[in-house]
Design brief:
rod-shaped; 0% strand; mainly alpha; 130 residues; 88% helix; 3 helices
């Protein structure tokens, strides 16, 4: 389970890197003085990408805290399997980060849907430029 999560996280990181690259390219295009550019769609897509980047940073922070809490839980259990109070505390922390990460994942997913919709609108507007 943990290996699948780590693989999914690495895939998300690669996708985020691609989004950042696309965002940088769109910012460069937007800075050009070209009257035929679909400025409205371009600005909207750039803004959506910026929001997605910010929320990804938050997701990343929660993910790192979750992995730390997970390690703390395993260390606590390994150190003293009979320490019920310590294990319950560590499990409580782990569950809190897991819940928060789930909420952040929902936000990231919503952002990606918005980025996709805005990119499609930008693509349609760019096709009309020809």
């Amino acid at each position: 389970m943990i290996q699948k999560r780590e693989a999914a996280y690495k895939q998300l990181e690669r996708a985020q890197s691609q989004l950042e690259s696309a965002s940088n390219q769109l910012v460069k295009i937007n800075s050009q003085d070209n009257a035929t550019l679909p400025k409205s769609e371009l600005k909207k897509t750039i803004a959506t990408l910026k929001l997605a980047k910010l929320d990804h940073k938050t997701f990343d922070a929660y993910y790192k805290e979750l992995t730390d809490a997970e390690q703390d839980f395993f260390d606590t259990v390994a150190a003293d399997p009979s320490d019920k109070a310590g294990i319950e505390d560590a499990l409580g922390q782990l569950n809190q980060y897991d819940s928060s990460l789930g909420q952040q994942a929902d936000i990231v997913e919503a952002n990606l849907q918005s980025v996709t919709a805005d990119a499609q609108s930008l693509h349609a507007a760019a096709l009309k430029m020809k």
